[in-house]
Please model this.
Amino acid sequence: MKPFWLVTIAGVAVLAWLARGLALPVFLAMVFAYLLSPVVAWADTLAIRRSVAVGALFAISISVLLGAGLLVGPRMVKEASALVERLPTLAIQIDTALDGALAELVDAAPVFRRVLPEGRGWVHRLVLDRPPGDPSDFFEHVGHLFLLAILVPFFAFFLLRDMPRLITAAMNRLPPKHVETSVAVWRELNGVIGRYIRGVVLDGLVVGALAALGLWALRIPYPLLLGAFAGIANVVPFFGPLVSAAAAAGVVLLTPGQGLGGVVRVLVLFLFIKVLDDTVIQPLTIGRSVHLHPALLLGSVVVGNHALGVLGMIIAVPVATVLQETVRLLLEHRRVLARRSLRA
Amino acid sequence: MLKRRLPRWLAWAMDPEQARRAPFLAHSPLFAGLPRRLLGRLATRFLEKAYSAGEVVFHEGDPGRALFVVVEGTVEITQATPRGEHVVRALGPGDAFGELALIDESPRSGSARVAGPSRLLILYKTDFDALMDGEARIAVVVMRNLSRVLAAYARRNPVVLTEPGARSEGAESR
Model:
């Protein structure tokens, strides 16, 4: 490898390390840009200048988000406040049930006494007995969120506006021998990632809305909050739907007057939504963008969780798909080069 | 006042490059007959690249993944023969080559070399497939035009029809 390329790669690596704090805003900006890109592409077909199209789209998107926030926000805040107020009672109820069940378990099989940690009231200790945080932590979190709220649209705006110019510049610097295969790989991956991101977000919205409606119809408390959680958790394959169903079932279990019948109704609702999601919603939203074997899909989610936690679980599927497609196309490219050298 | 300024605002809001691209593609035999709306959609799928004189766009035998349209300059389609490289065709602005890549990724039947500084528009099969998924009319029109191009090619090179696998001297890169 030439020294110029070594210095360039090293320089890029150092810059990336120094700018690692920007990784999350840039990632979220890319997601946002992928979501809006079909509308910008439609404006391109009408030969509308990108800056005009993206500016108008941002104005509309911000208005829609503000409108949705005003419409649903107060109700969500009310439900969240009610849940926070009920937390001490809920924690005591869970602890009572848990302590009783564990006592019975230890009586039946004393061997578990060694395995289980000492003490009682775990949930109370975990949720409510945490030392109050430093007030500066609170301001740091708020500041971080504020920065994200500014940086994400900022980066997304420039990504959407300048992407064609960046692509042309990159294409002009690319050696001609790489133009066909390398760019074909990138175009394919770009299509897969775009369809996946838009599909997952649309899928989450539909699942969240169905869960909220279903919970509201079943008169379960906090339907909006639990529906929103179900929609967000749905992004994580396999585990997301399980966690959201468990959360809803837990709330029902601890709500006076619901009982086991309520839990069964909620589990049936979530099972129905999952079946509907797998058979109708996902084929329509995510479609054919992901061609991963189920074992590879599950494995990628587990590895993603191990490496980056919840964020890793969310990005596991597109990353695994990109790796699989890249390897497939690069192997094909290698075969072509080998054939060409044989002919020569 | 609004009447006077509106056309100027509209002209400012238009992207001149995109506005030029659709009418340019309309002149290519491959995209003839496409309505303006679909030409606009098709035009956004093309990427553009500048080539220097002598650069090879693709080699004979490479898998075909994209169609090329000459915007500026000249491109020569060549084929290797026992007597050396033979120029089959010289293409100018508006001409398309590598059309068969839109059907499958079969190996290129010739090489494409840029004769002078040129600009090419590139349409990848992936993008064309995505476009066809949403617009069957594009598929019908482009495939009909492609059939015409291939029919003309087959009439000029009848040996291809009678001897599968054989290639005539005049075969062009598709």
Helices of chain B lie at 2-13, 16-26, 36-45, 125-134, 136-156, 159-162. Strands of chain B lie at 47-51, 56-58, 66-72, 75-81, 84-91, 96-97, 111-114, 118-124. The longest helix of chain B spans residues 136-156. Chain B touches chain A at residues 12-15, 18-19, 22, 37, 40-41, 43-44, 47-51, 55-59, 61-66, 122, 124-127, 130 (CB under 8 Å).
